[in-house]
Task: structure prediction
Amino acid sequence: MSTRPKRQRAATKTAKKRLMLPSDRLAYSAITERAPLKLPDGARMAVWIIVNVEEWDFTQPMPRTVLSPPAGGSPIPDVPNWAWHEYGNRVGFWRFVELFDAFSIPAVLAINGSAVAAYPPIVRAAIERKWEFIGHGYTQRNMQKVADERADIRRTREVIAKATGAPPRGWLGPGLTETWETPDLLVEEGYDYVADWVLDDQPVWLKTRTRPILNLPYTQECNDVAMMLIQHHKASEYSDRALDQFEQIYADAADSARVMALVVHPYIMGAPHRLKYLRRVFETIRARSGVKFWTGAEIADWYLATGAKAP
Result:
């Protein structure tokens, strides 16, 4: 029998009861059985494009690698892999800026809290263009490895608010990672939406221990990390897959609006041999009628006004 005091055992049991499984946070819903969603101006679908800006700590093993050391292992410092990523912030990001400007498309900047101080020109460029900032963890590591998750979420919100003049409304976990409590903590720390739950083409409500939080459609399939670094496709796969996905979602949206996400990182799609395939996607979708390029906040506000009410 446990020697812990009864009060301590009871408190532990109560805390465990409060933790929700993913299936506790939302009920199954077939998209064909929902009330139709309508976008303004007769549009069929909304597209939002998330640019991930990260700072990698060179005193730690690199989150991703392009080159293995001759003798294996995870050396520190890992200069070639840190520099491979840093190229994106020094060069690749600025290719994105030119491309987004050319097509008058707003981006959503999912940014590490630490990256706000590390890359001031990136922050200024995004503010000048009225891009949306959303939290992406204070550092680029799994949320399960963060010592104090609430403090991490709060600190990220505070530094973005200080830099931009407004707190972020949205959150994207590094690598979409969450603990059992992440949605609860996000609500309690003032966030309105999250994008970690990649399970729908329309926004959905997630239950928390206080009030619900909205989850916006994100993507693993049209994500350059998955395509280029994990599946090792050639650069043209990005445009092929993105445009195939767009055509299907556009067709699906004939009777009820849909949302499509595109995900890019400056060190991946900002590389010189890949950028033209992102440009191809922008050219094709921009030429199609009935498509709105929106930020996450715009999608959230539209759904709050016209979509299913929070449970």
